[in-house]
Amino acid sequence: MDFTQHETTSPQDFIRTSVTILAAKIAVTISARGHCVLGLSGGSTPRPVYEALEKERGIDWSAVTIFLVDERCVPADHHESNQRMIREIFPRRTIIAPDTALPAAACADEYDQHLRTLFLTKGFPDIVTLGLGEDGHTASLFPPVPDEAFGERFAIHTRTKQYVSPDRITITIPVLTRATTTILLLSGEPKRIVWEEMIAAIDDTHRWPMKAILRSPGCEVVTRW
Ligand code: 6PG
Fold this sequence. Notes:
- The chain is an alpha/beta fold.
- Helix content is about 35%, strand content about 20%.
- It is built from 7 helices and 10 strands.
- The strands form 2 sheets. It has a 7-stranded parallel beta sheet, sandwiched between helices. A 3-stranded antiparallel beta sheet has the order 4-8-7.
- The longest helix is centred in the N-terminal third of the chain and has 23 residues, at about 10-35.
- The two termini are about 20 Å apart.
- 6-phosphogluconic acid binds next to loops.
């Protein structure tokens, strides 16, 4: 596994370190490519990081395209909606997100096509943020991760019995492993426990989808525990 771990010592240090890495990667990407395709995960850990990133000076947001790494199949204004959280934080940005007004399967098909067009026109993701659930999931790839998550599609419908909003839309492993940089945001004792269990575990990406990402180049892991 080839990743760089950034151990932080406080919530403020975690946020500052995460924002510094994100802002630097965005700037380098825009300088090199003229544009940055940025995938953002939902959940609670990244919220303060995104809030600080939005306030960061010097980012040319006009050259950044934001898309959702995953979404809960709830209305876009629902309190559990990832796009609601991200649109609240980045009100002036265009956010590419699943159309959760559609039934789950149709929503996944539509998002798959939307991402296909995005990646065809602007390239695969330059940067993707990810979290880690206590069951070992990342994005909305819940173990045992279905074979479809390793196939040709860029977005699929998944289900969870353990977390809010059982129906989900998520990007797939091939999209995640094609990202130039993945930034894992892991904060709190429960994340340390599941992280250490995963690192020690066998290399089974259906059980531990993040292992597929950790073996890809460009993986930055920001931890606070
Ligand atoms: C979601 C996220 C999910 C998240 C993990 C960790 O929609 O919930 O995309 O994959 O990253 O569940 O969530 P926390 O950061 O809230 O612990």
